[in-house]
Design a protein that fits this description.
Blueprint: H1 13-39, H2 49-52, H3 57-75, H4 80-93, H5 98-102, H6 107-132, E1 136-140, E2 143-145, E3 148-159, E4 162-170
Antiparallel strand pairs: 1-3, 2-3, 3-4
Length: 171
Amino acid sequence: MFYQSEEVEILEEDELSSKARSTLSEIDKKQKDKREKKKGIFNVDRQLITTTLKPNREEDEIAAAEATLVYHGVRHGISYLAQQCTTTVLKNLFSSSLIANSLSYGRTKAAAIATDVLAPSFTHHVIQEMKLAFYYSLSFDASNKGNLKTYPFCVQYFSDVGVKKGSNSKL
């Protein structure tokens, strides 16, 4: 039997501990990177995303137009189906407008804009104004609308500029 002699690197204690620390820190970093990738968090050492991506003015104008149309429809009690029809009419009327041609909201998107964007914003605004008011009244009632149970409420309060009235319907 022949044994091949291997060269063994002899390290001093300080060198060994520093190499062990650097190896452990590399292992910890790799494990952390794996966890962040699983969570969807990425550590980017490059430029900020706000400097590389420029806001698209046209997309902002389209979103503003959609939100305005939904607000108008909700304010005047227009159904989401009628709002969808209005969108098609606007596309035909203003066919030369890029914004009108890009409007793309139907019943589902209009309902999502009303409940997830506009309602929280207006609710927050009313609550902030009510905190500043000395007196306010709140009235509510539960009612059925088809197979849907609704809880509308009405808020009336005094503000710096006069009496304000607001109503909000939880859909």
